[in-house]
Amino acid sequence: MFKILSIILFSFTVLTNIYSYELTDSTKVDSAYIKIMQEMVIERIILVGNEKTKDEVILREMQLHEGGKFNLEYLESDIKRLYNLGLFNRVDVVPAPLSSSKINLVFEFEEGFYFLPIPQGGIKEGSLKKIWGGVNFVWRNFRGKNETLNLSFGVGYEPFISLSYLNPWIFSNKHYFFQTSFKYSRTYPRNKGNSDSTGVVFNKNEVPTYIMNDIMGDLRIGKFLGKNTSVSALLQFNSIYTSEYMPGRTVSPDGLDIFPSIGLDFTYDTRNYMKFATYGSYYYLKLSRSGIFHKDIDLNKFRFDLRRFIPVKLSNDYALVLSGRINSVLSFGGGEIPVYLKESLGYDNLIRGWDNFVFLGEDKMFGSVELRIPLVKPFYVKGSDHLILRKVPLANKFSYRYGVYATVFYDLGGVWGRKENIYDTKFESGFGAGLNFLLPFDFVARVDFGVRKLHKDKYKGQIIMALDASF
Known about the structure:
Layout: H1 2-15, H2 31-38, E1 41-48, H3 55-59, H4 72-84, E2 88-97, E3 102-111, E4 115-123, E5 131-142, E6 147-156, E7 160-170, E8 176-187, E9 200-203, E10 212-224, E11 229-241, E12 256-269, E13 280-290, E14 299-315, E15 318-332, E16 343-345, E17 357-361, E18 363-382, E19 399-416, E20 428-438, E21 444-455, E22 458-466
Parallel strand pairs: 1-3
Antiparallel strand pairs: 2-3, 4-5, 5-6, 6-7, 7-8, 8-10, 9-17, 10-11, 11-12, 12-13, 13-14, 14-15, 15-18, 16-17, 18-19, 19-20, 20-21, 21-22
């Protein structure tokens, strides 16, 4: 009897806290108790609160299963996967030991909105003059199967509208996924030099923008090879038009390029939180070809994006996060490369400290190292206790996540052309510090102070702000 009571006490002190996004030290509480629990068989997994979400959507994400042995690492991983579905504001686990060898696990869910308009916005290129805002209408959990219908639009700088449908799990245990989308966008790119230019660097304030209209439709089908690994194939159609034709802006002299593209990609993702991870890895590889059966556009690209997040524990409940990222694009093939198919640093993917500059080329490489320091660890505020939303009907029934991290960073990047050698490329760097604010609706507001070296002992600092930061 004492043994059962001890297990119950241990279970409540450990398992009811595993829902946190942060790493726990639950696996180090008492190795003897953990050993006992690891030998316990899960009699039942009981799901409570998922009024809309079908049980199969939850259970298929979990490594734990009825009839199998309890595993604390699996449980932590399962709960983080359930959070990353984006369906639940909160997930709690209540253990219910039945004997010294059997246990029930009760999962309690607080579901989010099923259909909601999510405000969205940002500050392009770190400039307050380039603010955009809009609404993302999301019908999540369509039919209770985690399907997503989406209508999104933005106005202001670089307006757009898009429609999409995603089914993340088809064909039962084979776990294929399917996605299709349609998008119209207007962008204001810059180009310096003729169409045969290779790697160039220019100040955005000294090069005028022009209007580029892009209509894009795509179809993607893929398959998960495991809980964290997937491959997919993409077929895409583009119609790109500019009324201000100049050589290099489009291949066609009438300012209209129409062409299909195909691609294959590979993704491995173990991040605990996709928008602002505190541990895990993200590896993305893609091979694409633009201009199938097109006499002028004949371009292949290989790209990769590798990210790693390593917790550095200072105490049992406090950890810094060392984050690293490197991404690169290599182009090969014949034909002309219009500016919209070139690679750049200096827009959304910028070297902090160089936010007034654009690095434009046919190939690129960018790397960043960042130390994340938790000032206010992520926490939840119930809607009924929320200072602003407690009196708002419906909104006060949910929970909202907040957090603050300080960061210290170093960025390095460069671009070059197909005919140039990467070893001859001049890579520029920037460094600095900033604050990241974790906000509801998956916003990550970021304020960075970036510094670049001008010459021997002189530096220049710049403030960079974003409402939709991601790394």
